[in-house]
C-alpha cells in the first residue's frame, strides 16, 4: 500500500464514493423527511372538507348546506376561511370564451363563495379577488387561472376583458397564478356562489362541498363542530372529513424515501466493492513472485490470505472514514443552500466506517483466495 500510494488511493476511492453516498443519502433522507413533515403539518393539517350527504340520509331532504353557511361558521373558533363551492351544470353547447358562440366546451365553471376562494389560498397574478359585495349583489365577475387566461388569449386586465359563459358576459376580476389547496381549480372559471345559483340554479343533490381552512391544531375540533353549527336540526346531512394524521403521512413518506435512497446507496457500495475487488485481483497477479517467495520461505495459504484481506480491509476502512466525512459535508452544504436544518442520525455516522471495513473485507475475499492457491514453484518460475 505504501509503495504504490496512487493505486491505494484509487482503490479506496470506490469505497469513499460508496460510503459517502451512503451517509449523504441517509442524511438527506432524514432532512427531507423533516421538511415534508413540517409542510404537511402546516398545510394538510389545517384543511377540513364538509360534504353534502343529505340525499343519502333522506331523498326529500333538499340541499344540505344552508344559504348562510359561512355566517354560521363564524361562531366556530379556529376557522380562518370557509366557503361552499360546486361545479356548475352547464348545457353541452355552452361555451366559454371572449365572444359568445356555439359549440362544445372543455373548461368547467365552479361556483365558489368568497370564503371558499380565500380558503384556496390563491396567489394573484393580476387583478383582485371578488368579495362579499360581489356575492350579495350577484355581480357578473369571474376569477380564472393563468393557464385558462393564456388559452383564452387574455394577457392583461388593463383593457377590462370580458368573458362569455354562453351568452352571459362576465368581467374578469383577477387572474390566479397558483393556489395552495385544490389546484384543479386553476383549470376552472370561478364564479360567485349567488351569481351561479341565480343563472344556473342550485347544485345537484350532493354536488356541493365546503372547504374550511383552520388554525394549526384546530382541524379535528372544527370537523367535529362544523356539521352541528351548519345544520343543528340535521347534522347528519353533512359529513366533515378531517385531515389525515400527520404521523401517518410522515411515516409513509419517510419509509418510501428511505427505501429508494437506501437502494441507491447500496448500488454505490456495490460499485465501490467491485472496484476494490478488481484492483486487489490485479495486485495479486502482479505480485505472484512475492507470493511464491513467501510460500517458499514457509508461509502458508492462510498467511497469504490474511495479508491481502488486511490490505483490502484497511483500504475499505480508510475509504469509509473519508467517505463519512464527505457525506456529512454534502448534507451540510445542501442544507445551507436550501436553508434547511441538517439531520444526521448518530448511528449513521458510527456505522458508515464499519460499512467501509466490511465492504473491503468482502471485496478482498476472492483475490485473497486466489493468492492462497498460488503454487510456490510455479510462482518462482515467473
TrEMBL record:
The keyword Transport does not apply. It comes from the Bacteria. It holds the Pfam family FtsX. Its main location: membrane. Keywords: Cell membrane, Membrane, Transmembrane, Transmembrane helix. Belongs to the ABC-4 integral membrane protein family. This is ABC transporter permease.
